[in-house]
């Protein structure tokens, strides 16, 4: 079991289930890996893409590092006065907006790929 998986298993049941579902969906994406950074799970391919942060009051905030650049047609993301990142707070695993969230993941992965190409062309 990886460090992020161990971390997730040690969380209380509502947060654990939310993070298990999100973790499983993200790990199905080609080239995506997960490592512990700042004591929480971060997902990346070429650079950091998103992270999961369990909240003290319960629930999980799923945050995109380049959230301000995402189109977000479903209006899921909240910047909370942050300049770059935007996230969605999920209180219950049954209420995860899978389709809209995975569209955001795909867009974030595309941005990650474009950034990689721009860095190489410099």
Q: Care to describe what's here?
A:
- The mean pLDDT is 92.
- This protein has 122 residues and is an alpha+beta fold.
- The chain has a 5-stranded antiparallel β-sheet.
- It is globular.
- The chain has helices at residues 3-9, 13-27, 98-120; strands at residues 33-37, 40-44, 48-54, 60-64, 86-90.
- It has 3 helices and 5 strands; from the N terminus they run ααβββββα.
- It has a single domain (3-120), classed as Aspartate Aminotransferase, domain 1, CATH 3.90.1150.200.
Percent of residues in helices: 25-40%
Number of domains: 1
Question: If strands are numbered along the chain, what order do they take across the biggest sheet?
Answer: 1-2-3-4-5
Order of helices and strands: HHEEEEEH
What's the tally of helices?
Answer: 3
Q: How many β-strand runs?
A: 5
CATH topology: Aspartate Aminotransferase, domain 1
Note the topology.
Elements: H1 3-9, H2 13-27, E1 33-37, E2 40-44, E3 48-54, E4 60-64, E5 86-90, H3 98-120
Antiparallel strand pairs: 1-2, 2-3, 3-4, 4-5
